[in-house]
């Protein structure tokens, strides 16, 4: 039976250690003036989170690539939790840029994805055309990373989608979703049916072990953020975010010489980036970058 064509193409590739990694491609690749976009999800999130934004950007003529990190979504799981180390995830993304033929991109990163964007600024600056940091900065509010790792580090099986939605609404009540369908879509981007008839979180809880060790070892994210100063930058903050504080947000916007910023009042971690204010700001940034590339 025929059906409507998919908005994206599905691809897999092998990481340097053999783990199978999945990514989506939206839009048509060409050599025009519009920059390609790389969308990077949060710590335990996957490519489904960017479906709305990716469709919007593809409709504007951009090529968009969105991966599932190892241990998330349709990418393979690791036998050893140490193989989820942050440095390995960054290396996976650098490999993806080569596999997908993305020589220069605008990176839109939510939470962990934004931290990876900062790392690319330091490690692969020639690949960047611009950056959007979504509710992430060089400092994370004390205690919040531990709270995130605690819920990421254990499965939470539920019997049905209503239960999944209720759990997510209790865990993240300050998201910008306003309709039952938006919450259902978010639940379907978070849970997958298991062989036991229950819905399970769509990530390997072992990823929390590696990131907890990474947090304890410490990374100088301010130095990485400083690597973004040559590039057009947009910082998005949820107005009641407990991850990106107002103080850090203000310091970031003052540090970068040409930083654009958006705050979404009443929204927590993390904005979906499909809010009208976010779409307008992202489109404006991309228009500037496209003009510079012509």
What does this structure look like?
- This protein has one domain (8-141, 218-292): 3-Layer(aba) Sandwich (Rossmann fold).
- It has helices at residues 51-59, 86-99, 112-123, 144-152, 161-171, 180-188, 207-217, 221-226, 246-255, 276-293; strands at 8-14, 20-26, 36-40, 64-68, 105-110, 128-134, 191-193, 199-201, 233-238, 259-264.
- An eight-stranded mixed sheet has the order 1-2-4-3-5-6-9-10, sandwiched between helices. A two-stranded antiparallel ribbon has the order 7-8.
- Helix 1 links the parallel strand 3 (36-40) and strand 4 (64-68).
- By secondary structure, the protein is an alpha/beta fold.
Task: Sum this structure up briefly.
This protein is 37% helix and 19% strand.
- Give me the count of strands: 10
**SSE order in H/E notation?**
EEEHEHEHEHHHEEHHEHEH
Helix % is 25-40%
Strand order of the largest sheet: 1-2-4-3-5-6-9-10
- The CATH homologous superfamily is called Alpha/Beta hydrolase fold, catalytic domain
Major sheet attributes: 8 strands, mixed
Low-pLDDT residue intervals, each spanning 5 or more residues: none
Give the termini distance in whole angstroms. Answer: 43 Å
Q: With helices defined by DSSP (H or I, 4 residues minimum), what is the helix count?
A: 10
The coarse silhouette is: globular
User: How many domains in all?
Assistant: 1
Strand residue content: 15-25%
Which class of secondary structure composition applies to the elements?
alpha/beta
The name of the CATH topology is Rossmann fold
Please write the CATH class name. Answer: Alpha Beta
C-alpha Rg, in Å? Answer: 18 Å
CATH architecture: 3-Layer(aba) Sandwich
Mean of pLDDT:
93
């Amino acid at each position: 039976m025929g059906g409507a064509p998919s908005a994206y193409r599905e691809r897999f590739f092998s990481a340097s250690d053999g783990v199978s990694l999945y990514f989506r491609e939206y839009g048509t690749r060409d050599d025009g003036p519009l920059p390609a976009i790389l969308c990077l999800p949060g710590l335990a999130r996957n490519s489904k989170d960017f479906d709305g934004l990716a469709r919007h950007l593809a409709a504007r003529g951009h090529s968009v690539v969105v991966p599932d990190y190892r241990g998330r979504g349709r990418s393979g799981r690791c036998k050893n939790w140490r193989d989820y180390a942050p440095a390995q995830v960054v290396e996976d993304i650098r490999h993806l840029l080569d596999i997908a033929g993305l020589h220069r991109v605008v990176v839109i990163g939510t939470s962990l994805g934004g931290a990876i964007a900062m790392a690319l600024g330091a490690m692969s600056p020639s690949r960047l055309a611009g950056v959007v940091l979504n509710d992430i900065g060089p400092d994370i509010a004390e205690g919040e990373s531990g709270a995130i790792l605690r819920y990421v580090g254990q499965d939470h099986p539920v019997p049905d989608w209503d239960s999944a939605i209720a759990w997510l609404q209790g865990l993240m009540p300050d998201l910008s979703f306003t309709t039952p369908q938006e919450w259902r879509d978010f639940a379907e981007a978070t849970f997958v049916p298991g062989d036991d008839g229950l819905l399970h979180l769509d990530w390997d809880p072992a990823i929390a072990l590696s990131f907890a060790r990474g947090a304890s070892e410490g990374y100088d994210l301010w130095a990485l953020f400083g690597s973004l100063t040559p590039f057009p930058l947009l910082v998005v903050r949820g107005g009641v975010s407990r991850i990106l504080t107002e103080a850090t947000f203000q310091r970031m916007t003052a540090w970068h010489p040409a930083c654009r910023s958006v705050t979404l009042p009443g929204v927590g971690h993390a904005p979906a980036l499909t809010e009208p204010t976010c779409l307008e700001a992202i489109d404006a940034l991309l228009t500037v970058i496209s003009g510079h590339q012509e």
